[in-house]
Amino acid sequence: MKVVVIGAGLSGLTSAAFMAKAGHDVAVYEQNGFIGGVASLISKNGYSWEQGPLLLGDMLPGESVYQLLKRLGITLQVWQEERGIVLPDYDMWHPDDYQGPYWRKERLKSLFPDESEGIDAYYDFYDNMTALMRIALEKPSIAQKVRLIRTFSKVKKYKDMNAQELMDTFFKSPKIKALFTGILADVCVKPSEFMALGVPMFNIETAFEKRIPLCENGKKIRNGYVYVKGSVNKIATELARVIEAFNGKIYTNETVTKINVGPNGVTGVNLSGNKTAEADIIIASGGANELFRDLLGENHLDNEYKNILSAFKPMDSVFMVHLGVDTNPLKYQKTALCYYYGSYDIEGAIDRIRNGIYHEGKDGFLIYVPSIANPEMAPDGHYAVTIYTVAPDTLKTGSWETLKDEYADKLIGLASERIPSLKDHINEKVIVTPIDFRRLTHLHKSAFGGLVPLWGVKNPPHKTPVKNLYFVGQQSENMGGVGAVMLGAEITANLALKENRKERRK
To answer: If you compute the radius of gyration of the chain from its CA atoms, what whole number of angstroms results?
Structure first.
């Protein structure tokens, strides 16, 4: 069976690897001259920087992405780590001496003694939600179902709340509320638009303290966070190795210009240069509008799918400044990654971005040092550093091309307040704007990170109205994130294989 996969990002490569492993004739077509998409690297004069993913979850033994890779015969080396958070009036760096899994809880109570009751209530909610997640992953049984029902009953009263209402239930101070909802700015969603039960998923305590045990009494009860040895691009190169080992082909600098459909479903694709490729199954990644409106044509969609395409919301973008420096940032920043918040007003910050108003780093930014986990990403004695902020895809006033140097200088200035003299130790600089991300991902809107996780909005399903056409990636129903797009791609490949077997039995 001939399978065409459109796009060689992590979702496309994962789909292709499982289809090739199942024995099918797989061809992957990628518009860029390299694979990986936002998991690819930028390199210059001995420095390399990651373009997207930072600290990754679900990649330690027994966790979902680790198990997925294992099914493909891939085992990656990883480095378990954590991140820090610095707010305008206080920080949340872990203590030098390990103080247990609830050090953040105790630190908050010392900073905000009048909020102690609400802090205890939040962490009871957190414990119940993380227990619920663990139970949901267990093998289905009557006992498992009973535990699910019993545990859910403890959080049921919050199920119809949004994240802002949840915070208002527990806390009075916006300074605590922002600690738990600030990360939502990463995915361009307002706390008032995000479901309350999802808040703990964005605030897993092991992301802030790597010394928290992941197992108790020989049983895995927590997930950790890691960097990939060799950078996140190693995931893409290993997936490509599997595809080629099973005789699949990856073609770079090849643009799919049209998806061809016959009476019985997809028949193949047109490629640039007046070329064509036949296909029994097509798995497409990338942008939903770009796929369904530009490559396929809405006339092939039913009304339900058209309505989904009208309702879903791609994220906005990011503005990145990559630096090569000759000073060690970890003299001033405890870990390779730290979020620096400049505002407690998360709702207003997202509003401004959606209206094309860039905050110039004043609402917040992060500093990431990828060469700490992967020293080969910088020359000896030097460091690769990335500073970035969430930003509008399109500016209300001015353009990214004309303003990028000014904005880069401002961002470097803010970072230099955290890492003194950083701006005096720069050897290389690469500025990446939302326009660059549009080019990298071939999207009309760069939508860095996928879709806004709006409560109650259905996103484009993996199974499309066109027979044997499937959709994966950060703008599909899994919405984004390394683990989510890879797991969604495996689910989609299995669905395609299952439906093909059914057809062949008829």
So the answer is: 23
- What does the pLDDT read at residue 52? 79
What pLDDT is recorded for position 505?
73
Rounded mean pLDDT of 108-133? Answer: 97
**In what side-by-side order are the strands of the sheet with 317-325?**
84-86, 337-341, 364-368, 383-391, 317-325, 426-432
8 Å CB contact between 177 and 196: no
Categorize the per-residue pLDDT at 219 as very low, low, confident or very high, splitting at 50, 70 and 90. Answer: confident
CB distance 122 to 180 below 8 Å: yes
Class of domain 317-441: alpha beta
Pick the closest to residue 77 from 191, 187, 217, 228 (CA basis).
228
Structure tokens at 66: 């680790």
Alpha helices in 31-162 (DSSP H): 64-71, 103-111, 116-136, 142-152
How much is the pTM? 0.95
Query: If 0-12 CB within 10 Å is exposed, 13-18 middle and 19+ buried, where does residue 33 land?
Result: exposed
Residue with token string 């930072």: 54
Q: Which CATH superfamily is domain 2-78+231-313+450-505 in?
A: FAD/NAD(P)-binding domain (3.50.50.60)
- What single DSSP character describes residue 100? -
Match 């339900």 to its residue by tokens: 304
Is the pLDDT assigned to residue 506 strictly greater than 70?
no
**Phi/psi of residue 106, each to 5°?**
-70, -35
pLDDT tens profile 224-238: 999 999 999 999 999
Spatial distance between the Cα atoms of 255 and 114, rounded to a whole number of angstroms = 59
Sheet with 225-228, side-by-side order of all strands? 56-57, 225-228, 78-80
Strand 275-278 with 265-271, pairing: antiparallel
Map out the domains of the chain as residue ranges: 2-78+231-313+450-505, 97-209, 317-441
Task: Look at residue 500 in the predicted model and tell me its pLDDT.
Answer: 85
DSSP per-residue letters across 266-325: EEEEEETTTEEEE-SEEEE-S-HHIIIIIII-GGGS-HHHHHHHHH--B--EEEEEEEEE
- Across 355-382, b (16+ Cβ under 10 Å) vs e yields eeebbbbebbbbbbbbbbbbeebbbeeb
